[in-house]
Amino acid sequence: MLAAARHGLANEYPDDDSTKEVVLQADGLQHAGTGDRHVLMRWLNKMDGDGAHITQIVQLTGGPGNYNFFTPVVKKQSENSRNSNTFYSLGQYTRVQRDQIITLAKAVQYDKRSRVNSCRTWTRDLLEAMVKAGLLSQTKFEEIDTGVPLRKRVPELLEDAA
Fold first, then answer.
1. pLDDT tens for each residue of 90-135
2. What is the C-alpha end-to-end distance of the chain, expressed in Å?
3. Taxonomically, which superkingdom (predicted)?
4. Is residue 161 part of a domain?
5. Domain residues for 118?
6. What is the pTM of this model?
7. Can you tell me the distance from the alpha carbon of 161 to that of 32, in angstroms, rounded to the nearest whole number?
8. How far apart are CA 35 and CA 46, in angstroms?
């Protein structure tokens, strides 16, 4: 039942074969420098009948001690979200390239119990994999790494490994 609920909009508004802009969204208009800052990738699947943006999302969800990766995730993006967050354009991607991004995202290793490596760490690993695969320039990666800022992976705490 949960899977059906999670895939509801994905079934109604699936990705298509057109070339689309993929963006990285960082929570808020700027980072305060302390605490976490949620980040995700998204692209527009369609506009619904009311003009709402229906977007496909690639993200590590949850929080410290309870992280997960699900795909596909398709959600309505509110106007508030479009106005109150920071966006970095990764570029224009074909359907094949977006599928590659999803494949790379599935391959990013993470410990769902982690209390030290967050979605910013996972996203950094994904963006680095995209650079290696030729899907993102090193210059764009560095712009995002500095702007968000992303976090480098650190060893898990011993209590997390138990």
1. 999 999 999 999 999 999 999 999 999 999 999 999 999 999 999 9
2. 31
3. Eukaryota
4. no
5. 2-153
6. 0.90
7. 30
8. 33
